[in-house]
Amino acid sequence: MLTDILRLSDRELDQLRNALLQGTVGAGAGVSQIRRAGFLDNCEILQSWLSEAAETFGSVHGLIAAVRLLQAERGQSATFQGHPELLLSGPGTQDTPSRDTRVVVREIFESVKQSVLIVGYAFYGSDRIFEPLARRMGSEPGLIVRIIVNVHPEESRSREQAIREYAADFLRLSWPFHPRPKIYYLPGSLEPRAGRR
């Protein structure tokens, strides 16, 4: 569908525009050609969009113009700082297109300047999601990242063991990067009685 291009990040749109300009990707490009052009994610989305958009926009120049218009619209939206922006992600409908949550989060992480607060119930192998934020922390020394996690209690472990094991697993599986964020947990999440958690 033509709205699938909305799922692409700003970086991917730049890459697509450049690939169209250089001729490494064209209207009838297959998945393998798209991969050879440097796209690792969203190859199927790109292939589908390129074939449908070619019918709508007519030529490679039309495709490039469509990508530029989308980029200009996103850039204009970004200038309205101080006002909240509703980002619809996840499954959408034909009338309400949405964007892939991973792409939206990555865009936010790649552009953040001051602080990020992440609150989550469960993190499992989130390294692919957090990698752009870790890179951003490396390039923006003033960036403050705080993550609030939920440590699950277990009868076989003491509170201290649960915290140590969770921290070790989180840093190994979800944030194996440097610099590291500030990580917090709610002490009440380790209450032995479920009614008090």
Summary tags:
7 helices; 197 residues
Overview of this protein structure:
The structure is a single chain. The chain is mainly alpha-helical and 197 residues long. It has helices at 10-22, 31-36, 43-57, 60-78, 101-111, 127-139, 159-174; strands spanning 115-119, 144-149, 182-185. Strands 1-2-3 form a 3-stranded parallel sheet, with no helix packed on it. β1, α6 (127-139) and β2 form a beta-alpha-beta unit. It is elongated, with a radius of gyration of 21 Å. The model has no long low-confidence stretch (mean pLDDT 81).
Write the layout of secondary structure elements.
Layout (H helix, E strand, L loop, with lengths): L9 H13 L8 H6 L6 H15 L2 H19 L22 H11 L3 E5 L7 H13 L4 E6 L9 H16 L7 E4 L12
Parallel strand pairs: 1-2, 2-3
Helix pairs in contact: 1-4, 3-4, 5-6
> Please, what is the oligomeric state?
single chain
Would you list the SSEs in sequence order as H and E?
Answer: HHHHHEHEHE
- Looking at the structure, what is the overall shape? elongated
Question: What is the SS-derived class?
Answer: mainly alpha
Radius of gyration: 21 Å
Spatial ordering of strands, largest sheet: 1-2-3
Helix content, binned percent: 40-55%
Low-confidence stretches are none
Number of strands: 3
- SS summary, helix count: 7
- If you average the pLDDT, what whole number results? 81
Write a brief structural summary.
The chain is mainly alpha-helical.
